[in-house]
Design brief:
Blueprint (H helix, E strand, L loop, with lengths): L2 E7 L3 H12 L6 E7 L6 H13 L3 E5 L6 H11 L4 E5 L4 E2 L3 H12 L5 E10 L3 E2 L9 E3 L5 H5 L7 E4 H6 L11 H11 L2 E14 L8 H4 L1 H10 L7 H20 L5 H15 L3 H7 L1 H5 L3 H8 L1 H11 L2
Parallel strand pairs: 1-2, 1-4, 2-3, 6-10
Antiparallel strand pairs: 4-9, 5-10, 6-7, 6-9, 8-10
Helix pairs in contact: 7-9, 10-11
């Protein structure tokens, strides 16, 4: 089996129906779908719907929780149950292109080597619109022992990735329990991966809404990421790449996301937090960080060079 799709469900019939329907239309059926329902109080109609889908789909595995476990525990459960060569995390409401599985299959056959992490492109809607921003080269096999730029420029969202299951198990890579540390999982996986491939095709649609967990978890996990690389002995050689990824997430992705929540107090708190973390650091970063100096993300480069005035203006207008 090629791919295990993993969904955490809250029993939203309309959304999960769209996702399951898009899977039914796949031209290549070499996949399984693992659905974990994490809401024990979901309406009976929604439970009946999930059961009906399970009975109608031979390649679907359905798990019901007696009490809510949280995303991390549920994803770890799915990793134990998965049978595919690759696993990918998708959301209720994601719509997969009919050629999703076949596109992955063709790309893997064309490279004829084991790829540990595959990054595919998505069409985003909601809080963020447009095709996934990617600053790595399409269709290039990155040898991660040599191509350090992947650590800097990889898209940090857990969605839009496929992970080779056996190597995750070999290195016992799992999600940290009790917290939503998606990027920690991603960078732990990246730290042990040997190969990375970004494919050029846009093969799914993904809607981004307001987070159901603390937005600060997006940045609070970064000390754990950096400490993990210190522990496995690779931080020094990846210092610039990891600090570029951290700085971009903190100053750009995090603030951009929180600004769209229509929560003025939260945004003000985020601005002050980022300002305190980056005070007196960005000038040296912009002058000496090799990943920043080589970056083709010109929007981010311009943003950092103007960050001091940006943060001052935003704090002034969000008193």
């Amino acid at each position: 089996m090629l791919i295990s799709f993993i969904i955490l469900s809250a029993g939203r019939e309309e959304r999960i129906f769209k996702t399951i329907n898009s899977l039914k239309r796949q031209s290549n059926l070499d996949y399984e779908l693992i659905v974990i329902n994490d809401d024990p109080y979901v309406e009976k109609e929604s439970l009946d719907f999930l059961r009906d889908q399970f009975e109608q789909n031979d390649n679907m595995l359905l798990v019901f929780n007696n009490k809510s476990q949280g995303a991390s525990t549920n994803w770890n459960t799915a990793l134990q149950l998965a049978q595919g060569e690759y696993i990918t995390f998708i959301k209720e409401g994601d719509i997969l292109e009919p050629n999703f599985v076949e596109t992955i299959n063709k790309n893997l056959k064309s490279v004829q080597t084991k790829i540990d992490i595959i990054q595919y492109k998505q069409m985003w809607s909601g809080l963020h619109e447009g095709v996934t921003e990617c600053f790595l080269e399409d269709s290039k096999i990155y040898n991660l022992g040599e191509s350090k730029e992947v650590f800097a420029y990889i898209n940090q969202n857990i969605y839009g990735k496929l992970f080779r299951l056996n190597y995750l198990k070999d290195f016992r890579i799992t999600f940290r329990s009790s917290v939503r540390f998606d990027s920690l999982f991603l960078f732990k996986a990246l730290g042990h991966a040997r190969t990375f491939l970004q494919i050029p095709e846009v093969i799914s649609s993904h809607r981004m809404g307001i987070l159901k967990y603390s937005a600060f978890d997006l940045v609070n996990q970064w000390p754990h990421i950096l400490n993990y690389y210190r522990r496995i002995g690779t931080y020094k050689e990846l210092r610039d790449e990891l600090n570029y990824a951290y700085t971009r997430e903190l100053t750009y992705d995090f603030l951009s996301l929180v600004s769209k929540f229509e929560n003025k107090q939260l945004y003000k708190k985020a601005l002050k937090y980022v300002n305190s973390k980056m005070e007196n650091k960005l000038e040296q970063f912009a002058k000496s960080n090799k990943s920043f100096l080589k970056s083709s993300d010109y929007k981010f480069v311009k943003y950092i060079n103007e960050f001091e005035s940006f943060i001052a203006n935003e704090l002034k207008h969000n008193k």
